[in-house]
Write a structure and sequence with these properties.
mainly alpha, two-stranded parallel sheet, two-stranded antiparallel ribbon, 6% strand, transcription corepressor activity, Protein SCAI-like, SCAI
Length: 322
């Protein structure tokens, strides 16, 4: 084997291995305690190894034909894994990590600039925007949500113009859902509104309230699990996250950090000039969440989110959540 072939072949082998492991955990339910946890550890390890390898051998891989959207897809899978872990554990650090990876994909324009005739890549980009919107919604990153909505709308219009034989009705419905969601939710319409999450910057710690402290001294109660669901028809929702469940979810969590309550601009600038992330940089800080979450805060209760479940499904979730 020629020396210049070793790096791309090793990279492809790592991609195939990581994808196989990802397929085993992708459809696991997001409820229940320690559901398939050993599989997730293997998948994370595989993708972290893959990510590090493409960082260390970027020039050789680009020379061998590596596309920028392939880098974005790897980062997107890692973000998807982190979000899945958040849904299973309700730990804010996983949600923050997912946001970090999705935001990096957007800012570095990994999917932008791909050939318009590659429908497969266009669908990958559409799914990326939809996933990033969900993460940004839950984190209350209102400015980023608006930026991504515009990106999604522009991409759908572009796809409809360039792939006339393909029906994008489902994606148009996704666009309509998110627009309706942000138009009705007061978090998006009232910039000064307080977050639903309990925020250490704005609220006192529960144990400092006298009657809570007295009760806590006698009997320790911990809120560990919750099942959030909705049955109403024609609800305001995005994907399977209805507006009422979205608000309940946040009322049962601590704000990840004070920095996330501040409304940062979505597009970064340096010396008044927008930063160009379209270069070949593949560096994404994978330890930022350690600085964005407060270890002194109590853990969030686990939450199973169900959309119009059947009775048997509800009983199964209740049983596995115990």
């Amino acid at each position: 084997m020629a020396e210049e072939d070793v790096v791309p072949k090793t990279f492809r082998a790592l991609v195939e291995s990581a994808d196989r492991k990802f397929a085993r955990v992708r459809d696991l339910p997001s409820y229940g305690r320690a559901q398939g946890q050993h599989y997730f550890q293997k998948v994370f390890k595989a993708y972290m190894r893959l990510w590090k390898y493409q960082q260390e051998h970027r020039p050789e891989l680009v020379k061998a034909g590596l596309n920028r959207w392939e880098i974005g897809e790897i980062a997107g899978r890692i973000g998807q894994l982190y979000f899945g872990q958040y849904m299973r554990t309700s730990e804010a650090r996983f949600l923050v990590e997912a946001y970090i990876f999705y935001e990096a994909i957007l800012k570095r324009r990994y999917f932008e600039g791909c050939g318009v005739k590659d429908l497969r890549v266009r669908f990958k980009e559409l799914r990326f925007y939809a996933r990033f919107l969900l993460v940004s919604l839950i984190l209350n990153r209102t400015e980023m949500v608006k930026v991504v909505v515009e990106k999604l709308r522009a991409l759908i219009d572009d796809c409809k113009a360039n792939f006339r034989e393909t029906n994008f009705k489902e994606w148009k419905l996704v666009e309509q859902e998110i627009l309706r969601f942000i138009n009705i939710d007061t978090t998006f319409t009232i910039p000064s509104s307080r977050p639903f999450r309990y925020c250490a910057m704005l609220n006192c710690h529960p144990n400092s309230v006298p009657y809570v402290a007295r009760f806590h001294a006698k009997k320790v109660l911990k809120f560990r699990d919750a099942i959030l669901m909705s049955y109403h028809r024609n609800e305001v929702k995005f994907a399977e996250l209805t507006l009422d469940v979205y608000r309940m979810l946040q009322c049962l969590e601590w704000e990840p950090s004070g920095s996330f309550y501040q409304k940062h601009p979505a597009e970064p600038k340096e010396n008044g000039v927008a930063v160009d992330y379209s270069g070949a940089s593949g560096l994404i800080d994978m330890n930022l969440a350690a600085d964005m979450t407060d270890p002194a805060l109590p853990p969030n209760p686990r939450k199973a989110i169900l959309y119009r479940p059947s009775l048997t499904h509800l009983i199964a979730v209740s049983y596995k959540s115990c």
